[in-house]
TrEMBL record:
The lineage of its organism: Eukaryota, Viridiplantae, Streptophyta, Embryophyta, Tracheophyta. Belongs to the peroxidase family. Classical plant (class III) peroxidase subfamily. Belongs to the peroxidase family. Ascorbate peroxidase subfamily. It is found in: Secreted. Ca(2+) 1 binds at residues 95, 98, 100, 102, 104, 116. This is Peroxidase. Binds 2 calcium ions per subunit. Binds 1 heme b (iron(II)-protoporphyrin IX) group per subunit. It comes from Escallonia rubra. Disulfide bonds join 63-143, 96-101, 149-350, 228-260.
Amino acid sequence: MDCLESSVRFDDSLMSNEFGSVDALLTAMGHKRFSFPTIPFIMFLSAFHAYGQLDYNFYDRSCPHLPMIVRFGVWAAFRNETRIAASLLRLHFHDCFVNGCDGSILLDDSLDFVGEKDAFPNRNSVRGFEVIDRIKAEVERACPLTVSCVDILTLAAREAVTLSGGPYWPVSLGRRDGLTASQQAANQRLPSPFEPLENITAKFTANGLDQKDVVVLSGAHTIGYAQCFTFKRRLFNFKGSGKPDPTLDSSLLSNLQSNCPNLDSSNSKLNPLDVSTGYMFDNSYYKNLVSNTGLLESDQALMGNPGTAAMVNDYSTYPFHFASDFAVSMMKLGNIGVLTGQAGQIRKRCGALN
């Protein structure tokens, strides 16, 4: 996948004290907080107290403008390219699934380790590093050596969802950045679109999540794109049959075969994961699965299991159920294997250790 083509400049005036609240900043940006019905904070705060030493108010005194800096940084990138929202969300997911949410995916290779950026699930695919780096630079200017890169990434993922029309959820803060990265762990632990549902579920379970989280977090595919190679076997040689996937809608099949011909040169071409509303965070992803127009084999497989199919049907009918459950699952995701206290460090630059 391509990187951002033009730089994002931060307007310092938007960081001034004239914006006394997040809502004031959002008004200045001309964007609503989210389109889903408001999810009561009390539901979250009663179900999710801060994990370990994480706290919803962790930076209130040490970096009070952090939420607005992150929000504006994501908005500026989103204004430049709406696709970046899905990229930031995926970046957060791929970080947390490899040895916990510790910002390891942001690290470049070093003499001591081979990083995760070039792992097979991430190679020429995971993106958004420049956005996090720009936000980190702004945060360092306001609050030097105070806020971790992983906290910035976690907040950025939330902002990406809300800017796309999805739900808002409170993010507990105080994570510390990890001291290493592992390409091997990334290759082994990240779910693949080619894996059967039971394997994907096992990888979620290994991170303290469950089958419901598989269905809910798969709903992130309501935004973003996939390269042709991730689903091409469904179009021409499904499971070695020499024929297309019989569950794939015939009209969609024809369109995909046209955009992704059975040639290596088409492998990196992009297609929307949600063929209905690819830039809007809504429940169309689940409606697509019900109508056999899911793009990835691993997505459509959710309809082949009675338990997951029941959840898909529910979310396709009741968007608020999806919104509220997605918020809860994202809170669980963001607290996988976090480092707190004196563990890890606060990186000055996200791509390298101090």
